[in-house]
């Protein structure tokens, strides 16, 4: 009969390669790790809940991949090197096939990015996956949300809206299935955290965040923290072929600006660092795209242009909100 200790031993203790800075890993009351001298520790946590972040049709391998990838995306937004992972897994029952696939997806992404699973917890209840990821970076080099200034250029690391489009298509919100559906679903289920780019941005970007809830929603965090506004040039938004062949121009703009789950980086760079950014990212397969500029706060914190002309865009919402449909407690 399987129990929580068997699950940990069988599915999660086995790893092909463990980091040399893991002094004590899985199997004790706590993990012990060695942080490099003159470095600081960065800690992030994300939770995936069945019925909220994924459903019963989502492959277990995809859940395993994504629970790690979304945390590594947060580390990338801070400019950190991923190092250590802790997993809290709540299961309604023991499904060995599901666990095998989930663990495979988790270990694959950990191995690819050079981080080690060092501990966690297993309990019984509604299917929920919580991951805490830790990384390190040179002291004082962390990227934050509060450094953007008027005149800085606004960048994103890759195509926007594809994950949201995949979700819409799979939930049959469009009458015709896209011929690009498989590629779109891969973007939804297997996001790529921009780890190398995040580390390249240390000392270059003035502010940074990852796009998890939608570009406008996440950009607003930078603007609020920095006390600035932004102008976005809609014709510069990076849109995939799948996006442009499936939606009208207006709908594609809205999807790119508001859909969540992209896990691209959104960041700002001052004029004097643009050349350095070009040099540091020249080797990357997907180079960052400039989509606008930071400006002083006006009546509208975010404004739009299309081919150089001011443009009014009708937006149903700015991004994903877990509690959007829950009424506030009047007390």
From TrEMBL:
<feature type="domain" description="PurM-like C-terminal">
    <location>
        <begin position="149"/>
        <end position="248"/>
    </location>
</feature>
<protein>
    <recommendedName>
        <fullName>Thiamine-monophosphate kinase</fullName>
        <ecNumber>2.7.4.16</ecNumber>
    </recommendedName>
</protein>
<keyword id="KW-0547">Nucleotide-binding</keyword>
<feature type="binding site">
    <location>
        <position position="29"/>
    </location>
    <ligand>
        <name>Mg(2+) 4</name>
    </ligand>
</feature>
<feature type="binding site">
    <location>
        <position position="46"/>
    </location>
    <ligand>
        <name>Mg(2+) 1</name>
    </ligand>
</feature>
<dbReference type="InterPro" id="IPR010918">
    <property type="entry name" value="PurM-like_C_dom"/>
</dbReference>
<dbReference type="GO" id="GO:0009030">
    <property type="term" value="F:thiamine-phosphate kinase activity"/>
</dbReference>
<keyword id="KW-0479">Metal-binding</keyword>
<dbReference type="Pfam" id="PF00586">
    <property type="entry name" value="AIRS"/>
</dbReference>
<feature type="binding site">
    <location>
        <position position="261"/>
    </location>
    <ligand>
        <name>substrate</name>
    </ligand>
</feature>
<feature type="binding site">
    <location>
        <position position="45"/>
    </location>
    <ligand>
        <name>Mg(2+) 1</name>
    </ligand>
</feature>
<dbReference type="InterPro" id="IPR016188">
    <property type="entry name" value="PurM-like_N"/>
</dbReference>
<feature type="binding site">
    <location>
        <begin position="120"/>
        <end position="121"/>
    </location>
    <ligand>
        <name>ATP</name>
    </ligand>
</feature>
<dbReference type="InterPro" id="IPR036921">
    <property type="entry name" value="PurM-like_N_sf"/>
</dbReference>
<feature type="domain" description="PurM-like N-terminal">
    <location>
        <begin position="27"/>
        <end position="136"/>
    </location>
</feature>
<comment type="function">
    <text>Catalyzes the ATP-dependent phosphorylation of thiamine-monophosphate (TMP) to form thiamine-pyrophosphate (TPP), the active form of vitamin B1.</text>
</comment>
<feature type="binding site">
    <location>
        <position position="53"/>
    </location>
    <ligand>
        <name>substrate</name>
    </ligand>
</feature>
<keyword id="KW-0067">ATP-binding</keyword>
<feature type="binding site">
    <location>
        <position position="74"/>
    </location>
    <ligand>
        <name>Mg(2+) 3</name>
    </ligand>
</feature>
<keyword id="KW-0418">Kinase</keyword>
<keyword id="KW-0808">Transferase</keyword>
<dbReference type="Pfam" id="PF02769">
    <property type="entry name" value="AIRS_C"/>
</dbReference>
<feature type="binding site">
    <location>
        <position position="74"/>
    </location>
    <ligand>
        <name>Mg(2+) 2</name>
    </ligand>
</feature>
<feature type="binding site">
    <location>
        <position position="210"/>
    </location>
    <ligand>
        <name>Mg(2+) 3</name>
    </ligand>
</feature>
<feature type="binding site">
    <location>
        <position position="29"/>
    </location>
    <ligand>
        <name>Mg(2+) 3</name>
    </ligand>
</feature>
<comment type="similarity">
    <text>Belongs to the thiamine-monophosphate kinase family.</text>
</comment>
<feature type="binding site">
    <location>
        <position position="74"/>
    </location>
    <ligand>
        <name>Mg(2+) 4</name>
    </ligand>
</feature>
<feature type="binding site">
    <location>
        <position position="145"/>
    </location>
    <ligand>
        <name>ATP</name>
    </ligand>
</feature>
<dbReference type="GO" id="GO:0009229">
    <property type="term" value="P:thiamine diphosphate biosynthetic process"/>
</dbReference>
<feature type="binding site">
    <location>
        <position position="46"/>
    </location>
    <ligand>
        <name>Mg(2+) 2</name>
    </ligand>
</feature>
<feature type="binding site">
    <location>
        <position position="212"/>
    </location>
    <ligand>
        <name>ATP</name>
    </ligand>
</feature>
<comment type="pathway">
    <text>Cofactor biosynthesis; thiamine diphosphate biosynthesis; thiamine diphosphate from thiamine phosphate: step 1/1.</text>
</comment>
<keyword id="KW-0460">Magnesium</keyword>
<dbReference type="GO" id="GO:0005524">
    <property type="term" value="F:ATP binding"/>
</dbReference>
<dbReference type="InterPro" id="IPR006283">
    <property type="entry name" value="ThiL-like"/>
</dbReference>
<feature type="binding site">
    <location>
        <position position="213"/>
    </location>
    <ligand>
        <name>Mg(2+) 5</name>
    </ligand>
</feature>
<dbReference type="InterPro" id="IPR036676">
    <property type="entry name" value="PurM-like_C_sf"/>
</dbReference>
<keyword id="KW-0784">Thiamine biosynthesis</keyword>
<feature type="binding site">
    <location>
        <position position="121"/>
    </location>
    <ligand>
        <name>Mg(2+) 1</name>
    </ligand>
</feature>
<feature type="binding site">
    <location>
        <position position="320"/>
    </location>
    <ligand>
        <name>substrate</name>
    </ligand>
</feature>
<dbReference type="GO" id="GO:0009228">
    <property type="term" value="P:thiamine biosynthetic process"/>
</dbReference>
<dbReference type="GO" id="GO:0000287">
    <property type="term" value="F:magnesium ion binding"/>
</dbReference>
């Amino acid at each position: 009969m399987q129990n929580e200790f068997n699950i940990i031993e069988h599915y999660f203790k086995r790893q092909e390669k463990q980091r040399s800075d893991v002094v004590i890993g899985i199997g004790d009351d706590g993990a012990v790790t060695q942080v490099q001298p003159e470095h600081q520790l960065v800690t992030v946590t994300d939770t995936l809940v069945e019925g909220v972040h994924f459903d019963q049709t989502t492959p277990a391998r995809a859940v395993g991949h994504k629970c790690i990838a979304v945390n590594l995306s947060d580390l990338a937004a801070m400019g950190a090197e991923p190092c250590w992972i802790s997993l809290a897994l709540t299961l309604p029952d023991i499904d060995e096939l599901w666990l095998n696939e989930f663990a495979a997806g988790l270990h694959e992404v950990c191995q690819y990015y050079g981080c080690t699973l060092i501990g966690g917890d297993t309990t019984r209840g509604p299917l929920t996956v919580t991951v805490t990821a830790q990384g390190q970076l040179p002291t004082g080099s962390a990227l934050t949300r509060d450094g953007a200034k008027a005149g800085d250029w606004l960048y994103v690391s890759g195509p926007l809206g594809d994950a949201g489009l995949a979700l819409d298509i799979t939930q049959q919100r469009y009458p015709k299935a896209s011929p690009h559906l498989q590629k779109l679903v891969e973007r939804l289920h297997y996001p790529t955290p921009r780890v190398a780019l995040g580390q390249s941005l240390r000392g270059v970007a003035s502010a940074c965040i990852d796009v998890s809830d939608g570009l406008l929603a996440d950009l607003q965090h930078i603007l609020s923290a920095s006390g600035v506004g932004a102008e976005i040039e809609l014709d510069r938004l990076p849109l995939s072929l799948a996006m442009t062949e499936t939606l009208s121009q207006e709908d594609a703009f809205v999807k790119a600006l508001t859909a969540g789950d992209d896990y691209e980086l959104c960041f700002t760079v001052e004029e004097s660092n643009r050349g350095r950014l070009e040099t540091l990212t020249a080797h990357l397969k997907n180079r960052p795209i400039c989509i606008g500029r930071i400006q002083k706060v006006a009546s509208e914190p975010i404004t739009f242009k299309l081919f150089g002309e001011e443009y009014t865009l009708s937006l149903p919402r700015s991004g994903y909100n877990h509690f959007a449909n829950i009424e506030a407690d009047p007390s």
